[in-house]
Amino acid sequence: MSVIAIDLGHRFGRVARVGPDGGPAVTTTELAVDGVLDPVTALPRLIGPDPAAEGVPAAEPDRRAVLGLTVPDGREDELRYVVERAGLDVARVVPEPVAVALHYRAIAEGVDHTVLVCDQGATTLGLSVLAIAPDLTVHLVRTLSLRLGGDDWDAALATELAGRLPDGVDPMSAAETLRRALGGSDRVTEFFEDATGVRHEVALERGDFERAVAPLREQLLAAVAEQLTTAEPAVDTVLLAGGMCVAPDRRAEIEALPAAQGLTVRCFQPELAVVLGLFTLLDFGALRVVAGSAARPGRAEPGFAGLGTGYPRVAVDTLLDPEPAGAAAADPEPRAGSPRADDPEPAARQDTSSTGTYAGRARQTTAAGSQGDAFEDPESEADAKPSADPPTAAPAEPPHPEATYSAPLSAEPPRTPPSYTDAPSTPPPEFSATPPTGSPLDPQAAFAVPVDQLQALRRGDHLLVLWAWPAGALSARVRWRREGNAAGTGPERGDDVCRRRVYEHDGGFDLAVGRGAVTVTVEALVADLGDGCEGASSLLVPAAPTVVAYEPSVRRRFTGRAASVTFTSETGCDLPDVRIVHSLGRFRPTSIAEGTVLHEVPAQRLAAGTPLTVEFPLPATRGPSWLACFPADADAGTDSGIDLRPTALHRLRVT
C-alpha cells in the first residue's frame, strides 16, 4: 500500500505520491483560486478522484497519508478531520520543520548537530531550531512565527505601485505577478486589463522593488540573526524552505550575516521542501520527535516568576523571606537521651521543625510521587539510622519558619536531614493551592509557549492586543518594540506580564505604543509543555496612517455662493491628489461616483499644524447638498499612509 504526503498550508496545498518513474510526483494548488480557502474543499481537488470511482481498476489505491503540521499554530485536529473525510487514513503527523530537515537529509543515524529551519511562505516566516541526536531523535527546541510572508512583500510592493496601475486591477494580485516575474532580472514588464478590457503595460524596476521591500528584508534578516545568536546549542546549518526562499538573493543575504559566518546555508527546491520531506518518510526508519532541548527542557527567561504571576522574579535562587540572623541561637541544645512519647517538643523547636517548612516543601516535591519519600536522599541514609542520641538539625541549613507559601522561589529546596521518628509532632498547618492575597508567588511556570489568533486593534496611540489562551495558562509575557524610525514619546520597547483574569475583565491587553509601526510578541507561561513546543508568537503592526482632517464651508457672495475646504494635520505629511465631490439628496456621498467633482486639489506637502484652504464656486441647488473629499486614486485606499476624514459628519452638509 502506497502513502501520499500532504502539505496543506494557508495559501498553497501540495500532495506528493509515487509517480510512474518511482519518484515523487507533486501536485500544487493555490487555495485562493476560485475562492477555495476551506481545506475540506481543497483537499479532494489536491488528491484527485478515487480511481475506483471512475471505474479504472487499481491494484492498491492510496489510503494512507503523512501530514505536515504547521508550527507553532499546529492544526492537527483540523487536518486529521479533513484527511479522514477525504477517505484516507492518517499514518503519521510530522512538524513541518522536521519534514524540511528530512528533505535536506539532515537527519541520519549517528548525526549530531543543530539546524535552523527558515520557512518563508505566503503568509508567515517560521524560524525553528532543531537539535538532531545520533539516535534519530529530533528535538524541536523552539520556534518563532512572524508576519513576514509573501503577502507582506506584495502589500509593500502594491503601495509602491499606487497610481501606476489601471483602474479595476487588484493591486495585490498585480504586485504578486510582477514580483514573481521579476525574479533575478533588473526590469520586468507585464500587461494588465482594466475594467473595460483594455490592456495596459506596467513595468517594474529592480530599484523600485528593493526600495519597497527593504524594511521587510531588514526585519527578516534581523530575526534570523537573533535566532543564530541566541540558539542553544549553537546552530551549524541553516535550511531554507518556502516559496519566498526561491528568490535568488535569499541564500546570499543570510550567508552575509555576521552571525552566519562559518555556517552552511542550504537551498534546494525550497518551495517543495516540506512535501518532499514528508515523502521521504516512506523509506525512513524509526523517527522520534520531541519538544524541548536535548539536554533539558528550556524554561522561561529569568525575570518572570512563571505561571499565573504578574510579578517579576527578584533573582534566581533568592529567597524573598530569609531566615533572621538570630534564629539559630534560639534553638536549645538536644536532650541527652531519647524523650518519652508524651514529652512535648520545646516551643522554640516547634516553630522551626519539619512540621512547618518541611511539610510545605514536601507538598511541592510529591507532585509526581508520594509524600513519604519526597526527601529521601542516599547521602543521608546513614544519618537516619537509630542511635543512642536523637539526630539534630545541621546549624548550617536553618529551617525557615514561614510556612504559608507552597514553595520557595529557588529551583530546589535546601537539603535537610529527616525529621525525628520518635518525637511527637503537631498537626501540619493548612496549605492552599493558591498563594495568599498580596503574595508575589504563584505556582512556577517552566515553559513559554506561543499563542494562537494573535491580533492587535489600533485605538489612537494605543493597541488592544488579543489572542487565544492555551489550556492551563494563567499569565502571558507581552513584549513590544518600535520598528524603524517611528517618532513619538515614551520608551521604544516594553516588557510586561498580563494576568489572564485581568485580560478577560478588560477584554484584551492595552498597550500605549504610539502611532508608529511596532512588533508585538506574546508567549503564554505554562507549567506543563505537554505535546506542544516552546516559542512565541509575534505580530508586526503597521504604522497608523496620518490623519488629515478637512472641513467644508459655504459663503454667499454677490456673484453667487463660494465654497471652501480647509485641510489640517497634526503631523507633516504628503497630501495625495484629492477630489472634492458635490452631491444632492438626503444622504452624503461615500465615493467619487456618487456625486460631481467640483474641485481637485493637487498632491502637495502639508505642514504640521498649518491649514491648507482651497476655494471654488458652488453651483446653485435646491434641497440638501453635501461636500465630501476623496483620494483621487480610490484603489490605493489608505496604502498611501493618509487617513482623510471630516472633522464632523454633520459639517459635510452645506445646504
Give a brief description:
This protein is of the alpha+beta class.
Please explain how this structure is put together.
- It is a single chain.
- Helices cover 17% and strands 30% of the residues.
- The protein has 655 residues and is an alpha+beta fold.
- Among the domains are: 3-148 and 214-291, Nucleotidyltransferase, domain 5; 447-541, Sandwich (Immunoglobulin-like), CATH 2.60.40.10; 546-652, Immunoglobulin-like (Sandwich), CATH 2.60.40.
- The strands form 7 sheets. Strands 6, 7, 8, 11, 12, 13, 14, 17, 18, 20 and 21 form an 11-stranded mixed β-sheet that branches.
- Strand 20 (518-526) and strand 21 form a beta hairpin.
- Helix 4 (150-160) crosses helix 5 and helix 4 runs antiparallel to helix 6 (206-230).
- Mean pLDDT is 74; it is low at 50-59, 296-331, 347-388, 396-413, 417-426 and 428-443.
Which class of secondary structure composition applies to the elements? alpha+beta
Instruction: From the alpha carbons, calculate the radius of gyration and give it in angstroms.
Output: 33 Å
The major β-sheet equals: 11 strands, mixed
Q: How many individual β-strands?
A: 30
